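re: ur question from earlier - yeah i can do the single chain one, its not a big deal. heres the input i used so u can compare w yours
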Amino acid sequence: MAKKVLQYLFPGVELMNKTKSVALRTLFVLLIPIIVFAQGTPTVGSDASGGTEFSARRFSFGFIGGAALTDAFGHDRTGFIFAADGSIEQVLARSYSTVKDYVIGPALELRLPWRGVAVELNALYRPMNLTMAGVRSDGSLHSISPATVVTWQFPTLAKYTFSFAFINPFIEAGPSFRVAGNLNDAGPSAYGGTAGIGVEAKLWRLRIGPLARYTHWAADSDRAGSRTKRNQVELLLGVSF
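and the output i got, formated as tokens:
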């Protein structure tokens, strides 16, 4: 049932193996105590009379999007084929990206009762650009085949915001999870670690600002013909209500 729900919510995704299922379960296990804690603990602030008030606005919702600054793929692998005369010939295959990927998706932020501390959860759609080709002995490419690997990324980040008069810088860090579909002989890993830095400014009822994130993903499966680059940097813009 959970698998069907996830595939409905995030089209193009295939839950391939036990590793990805464990990663998703871990994500939900992390969220449950956070939500329960938020429901049971009020956020305290000062009112105009100098007393205290309890704020109902613990959650904020918005969108985040931008582009990757790093290529999704970059991997060479060696194989062997039988030549026309029956001999065994070594061949080289290359997986690479020709353009940078875009990233977009909803963002949910839960403000905790400690000043400046929050938890942020994103569901980011990132279609990874992949090109597969054979490499001749002179280095030229042949049998070039472009493809797209669909991924959804779920950063679950602790966030600390510094309060200033006009802008609010912040830092964030935590685990990221990933599911993928339309694999085209790829097998993106299911989890990694993310850290980011950014700044927010208030514009009417909106909070808007740029941020940069670095994610170090676990290694892809050895069975994957096309392997993703483990170190990824994304430049994003967030808008929340």
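The longest strand covers residues 141-161. not sure if urs matches, ping me
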